Amino acid sequence: MPVPPWLEPLLTTPFFSICRTHGDAARSECNMYCLDCSGDSFCFYCRSSRHKDHQVIQIRRSSYHDVVRVAEIQKVLDISGVQTYVINSARVLFLNERPQPKTGKGVSHICETCGRSLLDPFRFCSLGCKLVGIKRNGDASFSLEAKNEMAMERGEGISRRESSRDEDELREGLQQDIYPPTPPPPPSSARRRKGIPHRAPFAS
């Protein structure tokens, strides 16, 4: 499944309203979302009482736009191709596209969906733009299973190449053991004498 059923509801859910049940509490902002229920956003206290054993992610804010930490979302979604940012020492990505008046000159990378300028060579500026790109072109996916299968195929290809190289090295080693190279003759350091010396006769 290229798109999980909870993604589109997540992208259209409003966050950061005050919880009706726990409005007087300190952490009453509705900044949580349950991937199992795919309902409305809820607060910290609702999570403890209603979504204790569910998959829940926390939404954060950056310049009045909703973001999610990469460490959380990448556990349930393939986010490859989406531009990430470091905000308050945490790597995050935006849920939806952000309006941009005009793309500046000299921009090397832009979002394939909305045309927003990007910092790095990514395809999309947000999860929402990647969703539109998948529906439009079908050349991307949110599925972690497909990503893992591609990684396994690449790993198996590397393993096969390494195994073939090891077999070639082993074959060469066996050939060297069976047919050892003939060592070169040692260099001769002794000089050959031209004749046998004769001792002079004694004088009488």
Q: Please indicate the percent range of residues in DSSP E strands (runs of 2 or more).
A: 5-15%
Q: What pattern of helices and strands is seen along the backbone?
A: HEHEEHEEEEHH
Fraction of residues in helices?
A: 25-40%
Oligomer state of the chains in this structure: single chain
Note the gap between the termini.
122 Å
Region (Disordered): 153-204
Biased composition (Basic and acidic residues): 153-164
Protein name: PLATZ transcription factor family protein
Pfam family, one: PLATZ
Keywords for this structure?
elongated, 31% helix, alpha+beta, 5-stranded antiparallel β-sheet, 204 residues, two-stranded antiparallel sheet
Question: Could you please describe the fold and organization of this structure?
Answer:
- The structure is a single chain.
- 19% of the residues are buried.
- By secondary structure, the protein is an alpha+beta fold.
- A hairpin with a 2-residue loop joins strand 2 and strand 3.
- The chain is built from 5 helices and 7 strands, in the order H-E-H-E-E-H-E-E-E-E-H-H.
- A 5-stranded antiparallel sheet has the order 1-2-3-5-4. A two-stranded antiparallel ribbon has the order 6-7.
- The protein is elongated.
- It comes from Vitis rotundifolia.
- InterPro entries: PLATZ.
- This is PLATZ transcription factor family protein.
- Pfam families: PLATZ.
